[in-house]
Amino acid sequence: MGAPRMFLINLDRSPERLALMRAQADELGLVFERVPAVDGTSRLPVWAVAQFMDDRGHARGGLSEGEVGCYASHLLALSKIVEHRLEAAIVLEDDARLDEDFEQMALATIRAAPAGWDCIHLSTHFKKPAFAIAELGSGRSLVRYMRLPVNSAAYAISLTGASKLVASRHRVRPFDLEFRQAWLAGLEMFGIYPALVRPDTKLSSTIQADWKDKRSKAAQVQWKPSLVSRLRGWIYVLARLGPAGAWHCWTTTLPDRSPVPATACLGDRRFVHAQDGKPL
Question: Could you give the 3-state DSSP secondary structure of residue 145?
């Protein structure tokens, strides 16, 4: 396949973010299609109202307005993939900072993914080891996760994966938790190590700005999977890692919790320390 289409989610009231993303695209020779983001709960598309709002007009699951808007915005982007029957596409949020080899490595990752893949996370901040299943070159690997990713700054998604996520249902957790609890939608999740994308920490979150004061502890609790769901999650993860992958993840220690250096390699089961460059 050729270069996948890219969709950029961006609020109308965030032109400065759009300008930053366009500057990156121009520098890297990328082309993306802007998806106007949903701004809170008051401007939800008609099809999304019943999915996000209950009969009293309250957001399901205790979601904040920003979280509802973010989730609905991703559904808009995913709906385009389904509508146009795209084999695969890339979805970006407008605070994504892309590595210089982003397009080349994203395409290599998609080509290396096994049949039946749904989502390849491109922006994971690795806190736990992952298991390499294919070498991509340039010190990067396609990986399976022990700890499933959270955040939605950048990901590749297949037509099947997009279809699973847009399937109509009540939305009761933030969008990025659909990746963390991938077993709920039956997503076949993969990632790239080291990550190709990181959030721009200089930009304040358009979601976090409104949830810090409004989110209740009860809302946070109900997003956590139940004991039965957690058991399903462990079975999901272990079945995909297999014995070798699980043993590797249990017995390997990341050097620290800072972003992983570009020289790190999982293919020969090594991690390179960010400061001295020596294998651990």
Answer: strand
The string of DSSP codes covering 186-249 is T--EEEEES-SEEE-TTSPPTTHHHHHHH--HHHHHHHSPPHHHHHHHHHHHHHHHHHHHHHHH
Q: H helices of 53-152, where?
A: 65-83, 102-112
How far CA 65 is from CA of 8, 71, 72, 215, in Å, comes to 20, 10, 11, 10
Q: Give, to the nearest 10 degrees, the angle between helix 159-166 and helix 65-83.
A: 140
Residue among 211, 87, 97, 204 nearest 153 (CA):
97
User: Could you tell me the pTM of the whole model?
Assistant: 0.86
pLDDT digits (tens, 9 = 90+) for 65-89: 999 999 999 999 999 999 999 999 9
Q: Is the CB of residue 270 less than 8 Å from the CB of residue 279?
A: yes
The pLDDT tens digits of the residues spanning 32-53 come to: 999 999 998 888 999 999 999 9
pLDDT for the residue numbered 131: 97
Domains of the chain: 5-251 (3.90.550)
CA distance 229 to 238: 14
Query: pLDDT (tens digit, 9 = 90+) per residue, 97-137?
Result: 999 999 999 999 999 999 999 999 999 999 899 999 999 99
Reading the block at residue 108, the tokens are 């290599």
How many CB atoms neighbour CB 275 within 10 A? 10
Q: Which of 77, 63, 50 is nearest to 169 (CA)?
A: 50
